[in-house]
Design a protein that fits this description.
The chain is an all-alpha fold. It has 14 helices and no strands. The chain has two domains: 1-103, Orthogonal Bundle (Farnesyl Diphosphate Synthase); 121-291, Farnesyl Diphosphate Synthase. Helix 1 crosses helix 5 (89-101), helix 3 packs across helix 5 (89-101) and helix 13 (243-261) crosses helix 14.
């Protein structure tokens, strides 16, 4: 954190700092953010900026001589947020957000713990109790924060957020196999690599073997299962409020389909959606609950 950044910052400027950071980085999530009211959008930007700041430390470990120390500074900033004495612009905005929406600290703690895992681990043995736990920390915890900002009525929204987070993170892992391999990381569980006789050396070298395709198909099916559970858990009365989450779901499910359409070869150009594609999916997420409401009024 630079000296200028840690200076006491007026609330409006702090939120704008978070919004600017989010616009630069949240290429897929920001389309869901656009469906929120300005107050809720700026709060979600504060959450995203905090999570992104922590995550960037693990994604670029060579960018700082002591990533663990830098992450500890963000944990200290979280202490300051909940003590009412934030210093960084992100912390200033986040302190207002957690008070306004009564967000539990444990979810932010889980995110930091997940990032700490990235600093000391580059392999996972199994899905259950290992990679799934990591995904819960870095993604489902963010979902549990986000639904407090979105608003919801049915308690099933919490499990909806958990499964959506698992699906999102697994989609990211599958899309980014090549990028992670360049950092020496393989998130695909070793148990599953052995199941399909897929060699780690092939993954690290970017070879799309038949065995690798088998692993990827298996993991895509797992991600699809969690998307399906999330769809099932979304209560009808929560569809309007959770339309931003549904926009993100539609975008990420389409990314997963693109991975499958490539026959799981993720070692070439990065799998992406165009801006018009993402805009159309976000509008579809908004339209479904609102048009259904109008239909009921006129039916």
């Amino acid at each position: 954190m630079s000296t200028a950044a840690v200076a006491t910052t007026p609330l409006g400027a702090a939120y704008e700092y978070c919004a600017a950071r989010t616009r630069r980085a949240a290429s897929n999530f920001y389309w869901g953010f656009r469906l929120l009211t300005p107050e809720r959008r700026r709060s979600l930007c504060a959450v995203y900026a905090f999570c992104r700041a922590a995550d960037d430390i693990a994604d670029e470990p060579g960018g700082t001589p002591d990533p663990a120390r830098l992450l500890a500074r963000w944990r200290a900033e979280l202490d300051a947020v909940y003590a009412g004495r934030p210093r960084h612009p992100i912390g200033v905005a986040l302190a207002d957000t957690v008070e306004r929406f009564a967000i539990a600290r444990e979810h932010f703690e889980a995110v930091i713990t997940g990032v700490e895992t990235d600093l000391r681990r580059d392999r996972y043995e199994t899905w259950e109790g290992d990679l799934a736990e990591y995904c819960h920390r870095v993604a489902s915890s963010v979902g549990l924060i986000a639904i407090e900002i979105f608003g919801y009525q049915n308690p099933s929204a919490r499990q909806y957020a958990v499964h959506l987070g698992l699906a999102f993170q697994l989609t990211n892992i599958l899309r980014d196999v090549a990028e992670d391999a360049r950092r020496g990381r393989i998130y695909l569980p070793r148990e599953d690599l052995r199941r399909f006789d897929c060699r780690e050396d092939d993954v690290l070298a970017g070879r799309c073997t038949e065995a690798f395709q088998g692993v990827m198909a298996f993991e895509c099916a797992r991600a699809g299962e969690h998307y399906g559970r999330a769809r099932f858990l979304l209560a009808e009365e929560d569809r309007p409020a959770l339309a931003p989450a549904e926009a993100m779901r539609l975008i990420y499910e389409q990314l997963l389909r693109r991975v499958m359409f490539r026959h799981y070869d993720v070692f070439g150009p990065k799998v992406r959606l165009t801006r018009p594609e993402k805009a159309a999916l976000a509008m579809a997420a908004w339209a479904r609950p609102h048009l259904s409401f109008l239909y009921r009024l006129t039916g």
